[in-house]
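Recall from the previous lesson that a structure prediction takes nothing but the amino acid sequence as input. Here we apply that procedure to LysR family transcriptional regulator from Xanthobacter autotrophicus. The sequence below is the only information supplied.
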Amino acid sequence: MELRTLRVFVEVVRQGGFSSAAKALFSTQPTVSKAVKQLEDELGVPLLDRIGHRSQLTAAGEIVYRRALTLLAEREGLVAELDDLRGLKRGSLRLGLPPLGASTLFAPLFAIFRARYPGIDIRLTEHGSKRLEEMLLEGEVELAGSLIPVREVFEAQPVRREPLMVVLPRAHPLAGAESIGIAALASSPFILFEGGFALNQVLEDACARNGFAPQVAARSGQIDFVVELAGAGLGIAFLPRTIAEQRATPSVVLTRLDEPGTEWQMALVWRQGSYLSHAARAWLDLAREVYGPEGSG
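The prediction returns the following tokens.
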């Protein structure tokens, strides 16, 4: 059984089909289908039920998928340990960062890290924090950016803490307020980010504590588009203060969200008890050097 074949099988499950998996793997559908069929023949059991263009795991497939994730994570750990034998002269850092805040907080670290460790290849993955946490558990990345608080299966090092700003269209009745509690926004349509963004959960939980569910007018993964939608009067949006000030346009007004439990607290997160390569530890040390042991804010 080859790890390459297991990796193909795992991608088919993640993508929900052979065509999407082939695109993700930069391969062809016949090659992907052949690899999965080879794995099924080797194990002597069907792993997937093919339903139209979709594929679902069989009972045997569930077991193989779970074990495959473990084996692939162990392989990455093995490579990382061997890289560590060479110190920081060679190797790679598998890093996951969310679109919200990555350019502001982490872009400066890339330049410093590259200057100090030119032989380390940073393999960057960008997703919302929820998806990045899944990738941490599956061993696909060593470190990821996510919002505090995190689940008990993770450890975290704070990076940045700051309030959320409400992005209001200039014609909004509350546009002149110095600060706003979230209850005062119950009648305003919300413009949220796509489903994988942890900030959505922070806002939805705050609304629930105040006895309402937000009316969602739109969702997007693009910060500038979210701001433009707010400026056009579609609804209100929420951004961390630094990002809001950088992306604000003349068509919006920024007002501080005065609501307990809604501070934006970005951290670097890793799987509890996992092996961290020298490169990962060097990245954490650099973040601590730049932002302090408790993060900045």
